[in-house]
Amino acid sequence: MRFAGIDIGSRTIELVVLKDNEIIEMKQTDSGFDPLAQARDLLGGVKHDHIMATGYGRHLFELSFEAPTVTEIKAYAVGARFLFPEVRTILDIGGQDSKAIAVNDMGRITKFEMNDRCAAGTGKFLEIMAQTLGYNLDQFGIEALKATKEMQISSMCTVFAESEVTSLMAKGEVRQDIALGLHRSVVKRAVGMLKRVSVKGPILFAGGVAQNPCMRHLLEEALDTHILVPENPQMVGALGAALLTSEKT
Amino acid sequence: MSEDYRSMWENLGLDLGAHDALLEVLGKGYGDIYLAQKDRPEGMGYFDFVMSEVHGLRIKEIMDEKEAGKKVIGSFCVFVPEEIVRAVDATLVGLCTGADFATEEVEKLLPRNTCSLIKSAFGFKLGKVCPYLESADMIVGENTCDGKKKSYETLNNLVPNLYVMDIPQMKSAEGRALLRAEYLRFKEAVEQLTGITIDAARLKKGIEIVNNKRKAIYRLSGLRKADPAPISGLDALLANQVFFYDDPVRFTESANKICDEIEKRIDNNQGVFPKSTPRILLSGCPMAVPNWKLPWIIETSGAVIVGEESCVGERGTRNLTDESWDTVEELMEAIVDRYFKVDCAIFTPNPDRLEHIVEMAGTYKADGVIHYGLQFCQPYLMESMAVEKALEEKNIPTLRIDTDYSMEDVGQLKTRVEAFIELIK
What we know:
The complex is a heterodimer.
Chain A lengths: L1 E7 L3 E8 L2 E9 L4 H9 L6 E5 L3 H8 L6 H12 L5 E5 L4 E6 L5 E6 L8 H11 L3 H8 L13 H13 L4 H22 L6 E4 L6 H11 L3 E2 L7 H13 L1
Parallel strand pairs in A: 1-4, 5-8, 8-9
Antiparallel strand pairs in A: 1-2, 2-3, 5-6, 6-7
Chain B lengths: L2 H9 L4 H20 L8 H9 L4 H11 L4 E4 L6 H6 L3 E4 L8 H7 L6 H11 L4 H5 L2 E6 L2 H10 L6 E5 L6 H22 L5 H24 L9 H10 L5 H20 L11 E6 L8 H7 L4 E6 L4 H4 L10 H13 L10 H13 L4 E7 L3 H16 L4 E6 L6 H15 L1
Parallel strand pairs in B: 1-2, 1-3, 3-4, 5-6, 5-7, 7-8
Helix pairs in contact in B: 3-12, 6-7, 10-16, 11-13, 11-16, 14-19
């Protein structure tokens, strides 16, 4: 039997197919303006017997495909434990939200925190700041790591932070130094959230923002510990949903 | 609604266009949230009717009472002692504070970071859409939180009949003395308003009417201990909301009637959700009509609400006033004693509230507590941190929600609530 999980996020959609508890297929696409159509495209030609949806668009998917759903919070916890059975804390920073999840030694969620409605501390914040500084997303973290000093960014609000960045650039500050300050501000917020669920190691960092090397570096520095990052950090939610649908059957 | 009401609304000075728009939104929301529920007790038909006529027939009744010489007093808070109002044959109504309205106008008078409840009260006034407020002969503002206290200075410029009542902030002998002095002053004010002097018989009668109403709603709460839940949290919340608007004697009858029906449901093991549905206790800020957002999210995400630790809920209705005394002085002391037990977050410290949350979680067999805090409501948001910590130490899972009346965070809230339900299952 093939078990599929689909994670419909605000920026990207991921699909994972499992057979005999092995990943046999992984696909990703942009969410675009019509995530349901994108999901349908992504599923085109992919064989599966059961599917479960997670992510921001899960209920949209549920209605059209009559598929069961699970929150991203549980899906990430399950996916993370499959990849790293010893994991106790998960940080997921995605396009429009960020979450810290604590699990006990049985893998059961004991507590979670989620950012409130604004984009502060999410991938979207970093994306807009990268744009303001004239970087693409791949360059952003790499360039921030080249900073020789760090500019402090005090606004967490995306709109205010953007004007703060603009005025720092106008003062002639170096782009890399501003970039480092921006990464730091997101890390501080993530660490605050992790502490509220009480950080216990080992910690797994997932979601699109986990691909950013500067974020990983600053997070390890702030928590003074090694952070686990899966090979495909954006696939953890879809993987969790696939595992949960296989558990159900 | 008939044209009959239109002229009544016009006479009250309502903005008919804006009011139509409000009723349309309210009606649609009610249909989507309330009428879409399955297997509701038949007795809810009464509350559906009250809601459909909340700005119609109920206002007409109030206007008829006014014509007969009775007075209407509007209130924003459970600290306004209804017993005293009933003792002068006046009607106490809760004023509209449960929806955003005329926000742009409101923000000319109040800072943006004011809580939704206060902004709503101003919105209904500035938008001219609350017939309760417009029909009131006296509007009581009470000095509870800083937001309300300071906003009454501004409200005083908008209404001709604002009466401000001071409320203590500590449960001390001095605090009680302040509440007592304020209730005596309020008694004199309503006597002056109505020209009626309150004697012991009148006060006893007032206490009896209000106690009966409380007993009925308390009976309803007790029935929610059953599993499967015989009534949804949304419907029970509605009964608690109607408590503030309806004629008290009729309310008491209707609430008791639905209780009779629910008792039969329990005997037949009949529920509105399957047995063993995860059970949630809601705790925190009050939810006025039509603020149904969070309960709706919870009950469409696979859980049932079994109790409200809230002013629109058990915090407001919990204690009866001792009616066994004989003199006005003694009865007034009994009223002060009763209200001084209300464990609102404006009190410091406020350990009773925490005890009540734990107690209610046990009584109603809640699997978890969702703490509802209105954005910018300092007292409840401050307490929410301590509540969460204390409940988790007792292994009661807790989710803190910080939100307002807008619908923009529904998706986000749904994810958090669903994840919390997955956690407590």
